[in-house]
Design a protein that fits this description.
The chain is mainly β. It has one domain: Clam (outer membrane lipoprotein receptor (LolB), chain A), CATH 2.50.20. Helices cover 12% and strands 43% of the residues. It is built from five helices and twelve strands. The chain has a twelve-stranded antiparallel β-sheet with strand order 5-4-3-2-1-12-11-10-9-8-7-6, covered by helices on one side. The chain starts with 5 loop residues before the first helix and ends in a 12-residue tail after the last strand. About 11% of the residues have low confidence.
């Protein structure tokens, strides 16, 4: 099978009606929600007495358990509204998010405005001066997948409204704060402090892809030196475990 390359990334911004990554028919019918017959087992019940480790385990199971942990690659494509710092007017754009293991690439294309973020597994690149993407292997959902491995510590956080909070820290002191819906174990928010910035993600809708829970509607807020940037994402297509060429993560 031919590996996806940078040419495919470019194609994503040209084809909005018929995207390169076709969803399975059952995923397309979900309209942003899980299908009636989910193959993801329900996580254990979360109670007021659930420990931080039990909350982390429930969140991993809600995401798909071992299937979530063993995801080799993800490709998300869709629309995004970008609110730059100090602006109340959104800028409509197309986006593509691609991950392979520890590697991550985000492209946002709004015509004249383009943003490219890459983490190649060792270092980060951003086309926006002063903006550095958190290393994908040290923060976010990848850290949640490692919660029970040596070198990671899970601790409790105060609840946020109805959401249960936990913090996962690695041996270097990097942290991600997760807020979990006790009704179903889903991660509804996670917050990453990094390099003087705070990266916050809030999920609102999900789809199930190959037995893995994927956010199909989510927002991100980035607070830092240049003020707050806000992005609203709508996933139009999602693929997991596809072969992706290393050139996608080349830092130029």
């Amino acid at each position: 099978m031919k590996k996806y390359s940078l040419n495919l990334i470019a194609l994503l911004f040209i084809t909005s009606a018929s995207l390169a990554f076709a969803q399975k028919p059952d995923a397309a019918k979900t309209n942003g929600n899980l299908p009636a017959e989910s193959i993801i087992p329900a996580p254990p019940a979360i109670t007021p007495n659930s420990t931080p480790l039990e909350l982390a385990r429930a969140a991993v199971l809600a995401l798909g358990g071992d299937k979530f942990k063993n995801v080799k690659s993800t490709m998300l494509v869709g629309d995004v509204n970008v609110y730059m710092a100090g602006s109340a007017q959104s800028m409509p754009a197309k986006f593509a998010i691609v991950t392979v293991g520890d590697k991550l690439r985000i492209d946002i294309n709004a015509g004249m405005y383009k943003l490219k973020e890459v983490f190649d597994g060792r270092q980060s690149f951003s086309s926006m001066p002063g903006w550095e993407l958190p290393p994908a292997n040290k923060f976010g959902l990848q850290v949640l997948a490692k919660y029970d491995q040596p070198g990671y510590m899970v601790s409790a956080l105060p609840d946020k409204k109805k959401l249960r909070g936990i913090r996962i820290a690695d041996s270097d002191g990097n942290t991600t704060d997760f807020y979990i819906d006790p009704a179903n174990g889903r991660v509804m928010q996670y917050i990453i402090p990094y390099n003087g910035y705070t990266f916050g993600t809030e999920n609102s809708k999900f789809i199930e892809v190959e037995g893995v829970l994927v956010a199909s509607s989510f927002s991100q807020r980035v607070d830092g030196k240049m003020g707050a940037v806000f992005l609203e994402y709508k996933v139009k297509d999602a693929k997991l475990n596809q072969p992706i060429g290393d050139d996608v993560f080349t830092i130029e």
